[in-house]
Amino acid sequence: MKRRFSNKVPFILLTIIHLCMFLYNFKKHTATTIFTSLFTNIGMAYIFEYVVFTWLKAYHYFPIIFKNRDFDNAFGALLSQAIFVPITATFLTLNKKSWFWKMIFTLYFSIIERMFLHWKLHQNRWWNTTLTTSLIFLYFFISDFWLRNITKKIVQVISYVLISPLFIMHYLYALIFFKRITFGYKKYSWEEAFKLVPLYGLVQTLFYMFISYKRTPLVFLTSIFSIFIIDFCLIKLKLMKVKRYLYLLILHMYTLALNSYSYYAIQNTREWKEAPKEENL
């Protein structure tokens, strides 16, 4: 019990710190700009996590918040890739911080990783802190580049593809946690779910993208029909098991609404049309 409590504390403190950084952005920036920058950064971080963490098993987290070890490990990764690192990148980008501040926050994350390793909250397998340092520093510049070019069509489309699966994934993870739906191919474990759910989210996103960008009755009906056909096939192939189909119906209604806002937010992020000048040190 004592270790379980002590392991939670650093994760909770970091969550509070980064949520404060997130709220600070609303002093100077519109909700649409914050939404577009943050969720695009989360989407990029999730792609990295899907490859390095889910498939290549580069490292392991021990927040000891949940009893299920696979979910507890993934929750630690989610805090890192959905809150800590993306919020910091968004904060630096929106506030036009120079390379000096990017270096400071890169060192900040490197020190956190070393402390987590020392406290046994985090375990590297083949990963190392040098990789963390170099990739986070690069990630901060990618965040800047992305928002500077958000008015370009290709960047807007890719942003949509990065953002939309996040809504689907988090909803499905909640359903899996409460045992209303399962994904898998052998054990129907969390490990299998973390491999399949992002792919499901990405495929469904392509149809939602057609709905958002084409906006014709034929495209809408064809895309919705295709989405339900995919669900039907996954259920028949036993890759997805759902207690009530109502959960999937709610998923698609909820995702359609959020994707409409995503499209609106991306299209209306205009305050960075010109490349921002970096702050002086």
Please tag this protein with its features.
281 residues; mainly alpha; 2 domains; two-stranded antiparallel sheet; 9 helices
Task: Characterize this entry briefly.
The protein contains nine helices and four strands.
Any chance you could write out the topology, listing elements then pairs?
Blueprint: H1 2-24, H2 31-55, E1 59-61, H3 69-94, H4 99-118, E2 122-124, H5 129-148, H6 153-177, E3 181-183, H7 190-214, H8 217-236, E4 240-242, H9 246-267
Antiparallel strand pairs: 1-2, 3-4
Helix pairs in contact: 1-3, 2-3, 2-6, 2-9, 3-4, 3-5, 4-5, 6-7, 6-9, 7-8, 7-9
Average predicted local confidence, pLDDT: 90
In the predicted model, the low-confidence regions spanning at least 5 consecutive residues are none
For the biggest β-sheet, the strand order reads 1-2
Radius of gyration: 20 Å
Proportion in helices: over 70%
- Count of DSSP H/I helices: 9
Query: What would the principal axes of the Cα set say about the shape?
Result: globular
Q: What fraction of the residues are assigned to beta strands by DSSP?
A: under 5%
Into how many domains do the coordinates divide? 2
Count every beta strand, where a strand is a DSSP E run of 2 or more residues: 4
Termini separation comes to: 45 Å
Main sheet attributes: strand count, strand direction, barrel closure = 2 strands, antiparallel
Overall structural class, as computed from helix and strand content, comes to mainly alpha
> What is the N-to-C succession of helices and strands?
HHEHHEHHEHHEH
Keywords: Membrane, Transmembrane, Transmembrane helix
Transmembrane segments: 9-26, 32-53, 74-93, 126-142, 154-173, 193-211, 217-234, 246-266
